[in-house]
Design a protein that fits this description.
Low-confidence stretches: none
Number of strands: 13
Number of helices: 17
Bound molecules: uridine-5'-diphosphate-xylopyranose
Radius of gyration: 22 Å
Largest sheet: 7 strands, parallel
Length: 465
């Protein structure tokens, strides 16, 4: 244990309740945060939905409370329906868990001494209704947003973007810069959608997340000051709330893995046998999906570069098929210089010296893991915050490039060569290495994120004295 702790050795540990959103990109940072607070002496209770329920045996020190929901894993017929299914799931998670969460929380608070023990609920910022339930029962709340500070600024700016006519987006305006939020263009915003109903639904989701943050006693972000200093400063100014930049959480936290899918660790041994900085690691996170035609173009583009590769082919990566199949003849390329896995221990992969580049969908966790690995990134964003993250990688941190065009093998080959085999790519790698050093500095004893964790611990202890 280090720094200030939750007990001071005088009494039973204070308890922090957490409620993650049941998606991989949200579960990981919440468990990392819980691991951090547990290491500072807090007892942890995890409330969770049935969808993607965590495995309690991996976290024997925590107390788990399942909360029934009415969610399905989502429909992946097309990219758009997958996004809308996720948004609808988030909204219905709030309503379908409300009554059962109220009951379970009340039962927990009735236990002898529990009212004094429970310090707060930390919930994903998409769980406004459940945070309201907690506050009605006298439990203070903190909101965790698992995206970047820049992304949350876009959430807050959404009404302005609608008022000024950027949204709903017009096809002819997609490349127009959003002057108030550089380096975003209209096409990089969250609420671009082809139809009005979807646009309204996304706006509703964003305004609920902003309300969840504004009505909480504090706001936790998985980022660090040297990466997003201006974005954090304006967020603090706009919110007038304590904002804790505690990232990169996966580096600062001793948490056990919270991966939903089993991670194939054989790829680490395969990486051990590769030359330093030679391998292109390819992964599109837990939700993004693509057409079979795009997959084939990707495969031949990768093959034509001659570069060694480690490729995560999630079983539901390709829309409309039960099993991902690569084009005929690609097996020979893989056996010559590649490895394909269903799911990788990504944080360890990106920290491995053999990895020289990361082709990513630019989800925020992946982006941060890439930053901490010091690897340049080829970004192919699909939806949500990914376009904005990719924009930051290319234009603000200049540690990678974005592949925006259609996926065609010649263009894929060219983009990978720029990243892995050019002087321009070497410069990106140097900048990526600098970001890695800054991330490492942020989590040293006097680093900005470590100090922010200290402040967070004190803040939690001050909430319900
Ligand atoms: C979603 C959104 O898409 C993302 O944009 C948002 O910021 C968070 O929620 P996801 O698409 O899954 O998340 O992407 P990402 O944020 O990158 O999270 C994926 C997580 O899965 C990462 O922590 C990564 O380490 C992990 N992962 C990925 C694995 O453990 N193994 C893999 O093979 C691939």
């Amino acid at each position: 244990q280090e720094g200030n702790t939750a007990t001071g050795g005088l009494r039973r540990p204070r308890r922090v309740l957490v409620f993650p959103l049941p998606y991989q990109g949200h579960i990981n940072p919440m468990f990392q945060l819980a691991g951090l607070l547990h290491a500072r002496g807090f007892a942890i209770t995890v409330f969770h939905a049935h969808l993607n329920a965590p495995d309690p045996s991996r976290h024997p020190a925590y107390h788990f409370v399942p909360v029934p929901d009415s969610l399905s894993a989502g429909c992946t017929d097309t990219a758009d329906t997958a996004v809308m299914a996720t948004i609808n799931n988030i909204l219905s998670l709030n309503s379908s868990c409300e009554a059962s969460f109220r009951e379970r929380l009340a039962a927990l608070l009735e236990a002898p001494g529990a009212r004094d023990d429970v310090a707060c609920l930390i919930a994903d910022a998409h769980l406004l209704t459940l945070m309201e339930v907690a506050r009605q029962q006298g439990v203070p709340t903190l909101a965790l947003r698992t995206g970047s500070a820049a992304c949350f600024r876009v959430f807050m700016a959404n009404p302005m973007l609608c008022d000024k006519g950027y949204l709903p987006a017009q096809e002819s305006q997609l490349d127009a810069p959003v002057r108030e939020l550089p380096p975003y263009r209209v096409r990089d915003l969250m609420a671009i959608s082809r139809n009005r109903e979807e646009h309204d639904q996304i706006c509703h989701l964003l305004s609920r997340a902003v309300e969840a943050v504004r009505t909480s006693s504090g706001f936790i972000l998985n980022t660090f000051d040297a990466l997003e200093a201006d974005e954090l400063a304006t967020t603090r100014q706009d919110l007038g709330l304590p904002v804790f930049d505690t990232g990169p959480l996966h580096k600062i936290s001793p948490a056990a893995s919270s991966s939903i899918l089993p991670q194939d660790r054989a790829c680490l041994e395969w990486l051990d046998a590769q030359a330093p900085a030679s391998v292109l690691y390819i992964s599109f996170g837990s939700l993004a999906n693509m057409s079979g035609a795009d997959l084939a173009e990707m495969a031949w583009g990768i093959a034509n570069t001659g570069q060694p590769f480690l490729w995560v082919l999630r079983s539901d990566l390709v829309r409309g098929v039960a099993r991902v199949t690569l084009p005929d003849g690609f097996d020979a390329v893989t056996s010559d210089r590649g490895m394909i896995v269903d799911w990788a221990p990504q944080e360890e992969v990106l920290a491995h010296a053999a990895v020289g580049g990361f082709w990513t969908h630019a989800g925020w966790n992946s982006t941060l893991e890439g930053v901490c690995g010091g690897v340049p990134m080829l970004c192919r964003p699909y939806f949500g915050d990914q376009m904005g993250n990719a924009r930051y990688v290319e234009l603000v941190w200049r540690a990678g490039l974005v592949l925006e065009c259609e996926l065609e093998r010649g263009k894929v080959e060219q983009a990978i060569r720029r990243l892995m085999q050019s002087e321009e790519g070497d410069r990106m790698r140097e900048r990526a290495q600098k970001l890695k050093s800054r991330a490492a500095k942020a989590i040293t004893d006097a680093g900005s994120s470590r100090l922010s964790v200290d402040k967070l611990v004190n803040h939690i202890l001050s909430l319900s004295k």
